[in-house]
Design brief:
Oligomer: single chain
Distance between the termini: 40 Å
Pfam family, one: NifU_N
Structural class: alpha+beta
InterPro entries: NIF_FeS_clus_asmbl_NifU_N
Protein name: NifU-like protein
GO molecular function: iron ion binding; iron-sulfur cluster binding
Family: Belongs to the NifU family.
Number of strands: 3
Length: about 140
């Protein structure tokens, strides 16, 4: 597949998640609630998680923002549901490394998130892509690793 076709595919995946977000909404019985914003561009995220026995049982988000931040939130919720908290945090670190242009663990399947690899070329957009991830890390206590 040519670079141009791959870029077009990635844009298509991002726009699909933006226009048809997965897990958009609020979990009424959530036990983790996080609100964060990116003051640089105005993105706002409200993330609710249901974490039981160290496993992310459910994840939903609400908010407003650019296509990158909302698509990333949609993709993130899809990836972390059903994962152990430490696996979700590892995915967050891997995603952060990918956004910073660092080498990432090829064994971790990031699914649709790979469509966001091009964001690393635009430093101002990295915060957009990582907003939901930072919220999730804050919510499940990444400081306790």
């Amino acid at each position: 597949m040519s670079i141009k076709n791959l870029d077009q595919l990635y844009r298509s995946v991002i726009m699909d998640h933006y226009k048809n977000p997965r897990n958009k909404g609020i979990i009424d019985e959530s036990n983790v609630t996080i609100d964060m914003n990116n003051p640089t561009c105005g993105d706002v995220i409200h993330l609710t998680l249901q974490v039981d026995d160290g496993i992310v049982k459910n994840a939903k988000f609400d908010g407003e923002g650019c296509s990158i931040s909302m698509a990333s939130a949609s993709m993130m919720t899809q990836l972390v549901i059903g994962k152990k908290v430490d696996e979700a945090l590892q995915a967050a670190h891997t995603f952060s490394d990918m956004m910073l242009g660092k080498e990432v663990d090829d064994t971790m399947d990031l699914g649709d998130l790979e469509a966001l690899t091009g964001v690393s070329k635009f430093p101002a957009r990295i915060k957009c892509a990582t907003l939901a991830w930072k919220a999730m890390e804050k919510g499940v206590g990444s400081d306790s690793e």
